Structure formats: structure tokens, C-alpha cells
Amino acid sequence: MIRCTTSTTSSSAPGIFQHADPAAETGSASVDGSEALTGTVVQRSRVVQLAERLALAQEVAGSIPAPRAMTESSSNNLSAILLAAGQGTRMRSERPKPLHRLCGQPMLAYVLESLGALDANGAVIVVGHKGEWVTKKMQEIVTQLPLQFVEQRVQRGTGDAVMVGLVGLSESEEDGEVLVLPGDTPLLQAETLAELVKHHRSTDAAATVLTAEVEDPSGYGRIVRAADGAVTRIVEHRDAGADELALTEVNTSIYCFRRSLLSPALRRVEPDNSQGEYYLTDVIDVLVSAGHRVEAVIASDSAEISGVNDRLQLAQAESELRRRTNDRLMRSGVTMVDPLTTYVDTTVEIGKDVTLFPGAILSGETVVGDRTEIGSGCRLVDTRVGADCVLDKTVSHGASIAEGSHVGPYAHLGPGAEVSAGTSTGPFFAPSADRD
To answer: Is 396 a member of any domain?
Structure first.
């Protein structure tokens, strides 16, 4: 098992985050006349020197490179920025929204998982509300993707969050692409992101937006296209006219940008809205106005882009993830008598020819060996079950059941309990941790 090894301390400050003010580092109080962005960084092996990253103050404010002749990009310098700084007030919870669990893992872990097939160089996670909690938990996630954490100390919109996130990216990736993803889209799949990046590179676009066709676009930003299919702008629902409200292609808030254009475009964004925030969608207007082409890719399944903002949407997302998990297991050789009433976390490992009866619940790091039967009413958490076992109405937390055993009915196995190979426990079995 490989775990993220992102450093959580530095020599200059205690705790999770290295706090710094970009304006102080660069000797400038503002960027393009607006209030200076503030961000903090945690990196694997060294503290990011913000002055190295913020060449922003050394460039002419608002300058954007001119469009170049279209040639398919050969760069493989792909990085990602995940936006996970929001408070998520509609969740009505003390837990930060990115850490709400779905099928055994934090919501944000699934967004990271969707990056796994893209050969990305790394990801920057922008945290804010209870950022130390989010950082600590995400460092425990099993991933081979290098992670860095940047704190958006004041939440001033998605444009501000992405600017802060750029602080954590390596200078060596300046000629590549950067994906921007919200941290609350756990249903997003790797194949969809791969198609987005492929289309972006093949068209040499300045930016490519992942969009979706939905029956009810209420609340979503609408995609406005030119006659040749290029995106001309994204109109928020509250600002849309009658013709724009009739559009059903919507923004998913998932983008692929040409890295060299993103920073200059962000500096042109102004907080000209009722919230006084910097919106990432305004970058599209800036790029188009400067003569750059913006493309769009329509997601094949609009359910993938569904965000999670409250407990109802959380339950809906969990239902879809369970369906995917059960489908995958059945295709791999697992029998489910009733998939609709069988609950298996994405972290569980199950062998071939295993049978799961209705009402079985398998959670955490549970492992089940070949040809085992898990009966109705069983709940297994972090439990190892050998091959050729039969479990009937058994509850187990952190126990080990060796091959060929018959456990239950109405057995209860606590942490550390072990059942020897070939044992038949009989009903109401409840051993201590040091007894077979």
C-alpha cells in the first residue's frame, strides 16, 4: 500500500501550513490593481518560495500572449488544481464538505482517483475552511500522484482560488496544461477527463470546458457557442437573457487551460459582481476577447458532473457509486442475489465465486476470499475472511476468520478476534480478542 508522503512541517513555522503573503514576497501590494492574493503552501520536499512562483508582479499587468498558429500539442506536462476551500454550509455539518464520505472514502478522494489514468505530474489541492483537517486526512489517502496543499485564507471566488493554486505548481510545467476541478464531483470518471485533455491538445485551444447537456439547466451557467462551435462565453443563470436561458448545454466548472495563458488571463478578471468575487468563468471572456480559441467537450453522461452540496445530493452520489461498484464486482465473478440491497465500499476486496446475500454490508479494509458466502444480516468492517467460509448474520469489526469456517448465526466478533481454520462457531458466538 502506497501512501501520500507530503511533508506537513517546515523549518520556519510550526503546523500544517507555511503561511506567507505573496505581496510581501514580491514587494508589491497588488496584482493588476486588485487586492493581493494570499496563499500558503505545503510541499513534499521543500517550502515553496512564493517569490519564485509569483512572476505575476514582474509581468505587464493584463498582458496575454497573442494566439499562435494551431499545432497539436506534444507536451505531457499536465498538472491539476483541485478546489476544496469552500465551507459547504448546506451540508449542515462540522465536517468539511470535501471529507464527507461516500462508499468508505472522502468525497475528494474520488476526484483524485479520476486523475489516476492521466499521467499527471501532480496535483495542488486548494484548501480553506478547516484546511488543516482536510490536509491531514488527504495525506492518508493511497495515491501515487504527488500532492501539494495551498491554503486560500480568504474565500474570494473560484478565480482567486485558482490563482492561489498556481502558486503550488512547478515552474517546469509552464509550457503544459493545467486541469481545474471542483472537489465535490465524486462521480467524475477518468475516461471523461482523458477525452477532455485529448481534445484540448488536438485543437491547441487556450482553454477547453467540460460541458453537459441537461434536461433542467436551472442554476447552471450556460454555454454560448459561435457558428463554428467555439465557445464565446459562459453566462451565469442569473445574468442570462431569454435566448440564453433556453440553452441546455451547461458549464460543469471543469476546465483544461494552457498554463502559459491562465495566469495573465486571471489578472484581467475583475470582481464586478454582487458577491465581489473573482469568477473563473470570466477567464473565458478574457481569452476570447484576446483572440484565443476556447473549445468544449460534452460529457457523455451528465450524471458524472453532478456536484454534491447537501445531504440529499450526497445520498444520490453514494447510490450511483454503489451501483458502479456492484457492477464491477459482478463482472469480476462475484454473485449478488440482490445488488440493490447489497452494500460494498470501494475499499473492499472480494475474491471470485463469492456470494453476497441481500442486506450484506462490507466496509473499510475488508477482504473476502474465494468461494465464501456472506449471508443476510452480515456486517463486516475491516475484517479478513478466508476462502470457503460461510457467514450467517455475523457482525465483525477488525476480526480475522480463517478459511473453511462457518460463523453464526448471531455472531459478534470484536477487534482482534480470530476464528481458526475449519471452525464452526454455532449461534451467538462472541469471543474475546485473545480467544479463538
So the answer is: yes
pLDDT on residue 116: 80
C-alpha–C-alpha distance, residues 98 and 138, integer Å: 10
* pTM of the shown model: 0.82
CA–CA dist 209, 352 (Å, integer) = 41
Domain assignment present for 426: yes
Strands (E), 28-165: 30-31, 34-35, 39-42, 78-84, 101-102, 105-106, 122-127, 147-151
CATH of the domain at 428: 2.160.10.10
Residue 28 pLDDT > 80: no
Would you place residue 434 in the very low, low, confident or very high pLDDT band (cuts 50, 70, 90)?
low
- pLDDT at residue 171 in the model: 75
Q: Which amino acid is at 53?
A: R
Q: Where are the beta strands (DSSP E) in 269-416?
A: 294-298, 335-336, 343-344, 349-350, 355-356, 361-363, 367-368, 373-374, 379-381, 384-385, 390-391, 394-397, 400-401, 406-407, 411-413
Residue 68 pLDDT class (50, 70, 90 cuts) = low
Q: Tell whether 241 and 376 lie within a shared domain.
A: no
As a dihedral over the C-alpha atoms of residue 253, residue 75, residue 194, residue 121, rounded to 10 degrees, the angle is: -80
**Parent domain of 34:** 18-305
Round to whole Å and give the CA distance between 355 and 76: 44
Whether residue 310 lies inside any domain: the answer is no
As a whole number of angstroms, the distance between CA 121 and CA 78 comes to 6
Written as one string, the DSSP assignment of 328-368 is: HHHHTT-EES-GGG-EE-TT-EE-TT-EE-TT-EEETT-EE
Amino acid at 126: V
Contact at 8 Å (CB) between 210 and 305? yes
pLDDT in tens, 133-170: 999 999 998 788 899 999 999 989 999 999 999 999 98
Q: In what order do the strands lie in the sheet with 390-391?
A: 335-336, 355-356, 373-374, 390-391, 406-407
Split into its structural domains, the chain has a count of 2
pLDDT digits (tens, 9 = 90+) for 364-379: 999 999 999 999 999 9
